[in-house]
Design brief:
The protein is built from 5 helices and 18 strands. By secondary structure, the protein is mostly beta strands. It has a single domain, classed as Outer membrane protein transport protein (OMPP1/FadL/TodX) (Porin). The chain has a 16-stranded antiparallel β-sheet that branches. A two-stranded antiparallel ribbon has the order 10-11. β12 and β13 form a beta hairpin. The protein starts with 10 loop residues before the first helix and ends with a strand.
């Protein structure tokens, strides 16, 4: 019997709308070196201009005008195996994510800013994976997804309360290419989209209530629906042709809504912070078709500061949003893309985009050269996770019979963030 391995690679682009250098699902734990050094906390602790995307209400802490610019070098290590085939490493193991934030105090009550942040940048590269008649080499798949957000935070402060809104313009580009199980090349070039969203933020400082150094914050980020013309529909067409899916997938990948609360407390040189966020994958287009679950994110951060320097440490945890789906019509999610049972969705979720990192350990620091100029650094490490699910591992193109078995993915992350800040 002439068996062929199912084209597992395209699932990466199907199940992700945010980032492969992602960590809470497919989101970075934070944007900006200060926040990343403190475990991703930033809802209730001001990081100056950098706070524009985390909680825009906190730009009310800038003294006059502040500019931060830098980026993150993200180094994921991913290795996957389908059934009894060997592990193959993705060659897409380095990404550079830019970040620029500006905040300005207009008067005692009003503050404004502008920023540009790389919030996504997916990519896997299996072109060098070996192939034999019984082994697809992950279909020699190459994908590239880039998301960037432009925002203009506007904040108002009155006594102990700060409120803010940030209109966001999100740019996205997606390209999918792979060889299907019949050896045909599948791809349609790059698709792009430009869509508006927004975020809201609020903080309350308890100093005037007699509790010095205690701040509470809240944030909300809207959904942002991206439409990548001909990408997902063309990528899933081969699965329609063999009867696995009832119809091609739609081309929508929606950045999910988020809600969060945070606490921070400062006493002398010590600051501790805690954030809780919920990322609502189960209500986002694309993700809900693959039965992604809402994700609870817990972040803890600590900072010790002196006159011209600070050190930071943190921990971030979120159970990955992927869960093994049992075969059978009773578990078919919205969209109906499971005529072959849950094993098909497990294949896409596990090997397409392994959003399986859960724990993150962080360190960081700041050094001020003078009152105007400083440098921030951060390092984030996510230890290796190994996730195994029952998936489709082979397909007989003559009979349509499908074979199932255990498939696994290993995922490790390292990243270094660098940022320069100028105050004037």
């Amino acid at each position: 019997m002439n068996n062929r391995i199912l084209p597992v690679g395209i699932g990466l682009s199907i199940v992700t709308s945010s980032l492969l250098y992602a960590t809470n699902g497919d989101n970075l734990i934070a944007v900006g070196a200060k926040s990343r050094g403190m475990g991703g906390t930033g809802i209730a602790i001001s990081h100056g201009a950098e706070s524009a995307l985390v909680n825009p209400a906190l730009i009310t802490e800038v003294a006059n005008t502040e500019i931060s610019f830098g980026g993150t070098v993200f180094m994921p290590e991913m290795s996957a195996r389908v059934g009894q085939a060997p592990y193959y490493d993705s060659d897409a193991n380095m990404n550079v994510i830019p970040e620029v934030s500006i905040a300005r105090k207009i008067n005692e009550n009003w503050f404004i800013g502008i920023g540009m942040w790389g919030t996504a940048g997916m990519g896997v590269d299996y072109r060098n994976a070996h192939t034999d008649p019984m082994d697809s080499g992950n279909m020699h798949m190459v994908t590239n997804l880039q998301l960037m957000q432009f925002g203009v935070p506007i904040a108002y402060k009155y006594d102990s309360i700060s409120l803010a809104v940030t209109p966001i313009l999100q740019y996205g580009a997606l390209d999918i290419g792979y060889n299907d199980f019949m050896g045909n090349n599948v791809g349609d070039g790059i698709a792009q989209d430009l869509v508006f969203g927004y975020s809201l933020g609020a903080t309350y400082d308890f100093t005037q209530d007699g509790i010095d150094g205690f701040i509470v914050g809240m944030v909300y980020k809207s959904k942002i629906d991206m439409d990548y013309s001909n990408q997902l529909s063309k990528a899933t067409q081969p699965f329609v042709d063999v009867g696995i899916f009832p119809a091609p997938m739609e081309n929508h990948l929606e950045q999910p809504a988020e809600v969060g609360v945070g606490l921070s407390y400062k006493i002398e040189n010590h600051t501790i912070a805690f954030d809780y966020r919920q990322i609502q994958w189960s209500d986002a287009k694309g993700y809900k078709d693959f039965a992604w679950e809402d994700q609870d994110v817990y972040a803890f951060g600590y900072e010790y500061s002196e006159d011209n320097w600070a050190v930071r440490a943190g921990y971030n945890y979120a159970e990955n949003p992927l869960s093994e789906i049992q075969s059978g019509p009773q578990v078919i999610p919205a969209g109906g893309y499971a005529m072959a049972g849950g094993n098909a969705l497990n294949l896409f979720n596990l090997l397409g985009f392994p959003a399986t990192a859960e724990e993150h350990y962080t360190i960081g620091g700041t050094y001020e050269f003078d009152k105007e100029f400083s440098i921030d650094l951060a390092y984030v490490y996510a230890p290796k996770t190994t996730t195994t699910m029952n998936t489709i591992v082979g397909l007989n193109p003559q009979t349509g019979d499908m074979y199932t078995g255990a498939s696994s993915v290993e995922h490790t992350e390292n990243s270094i963030s660098f940022q320069l800040t100028y105050k004037f």
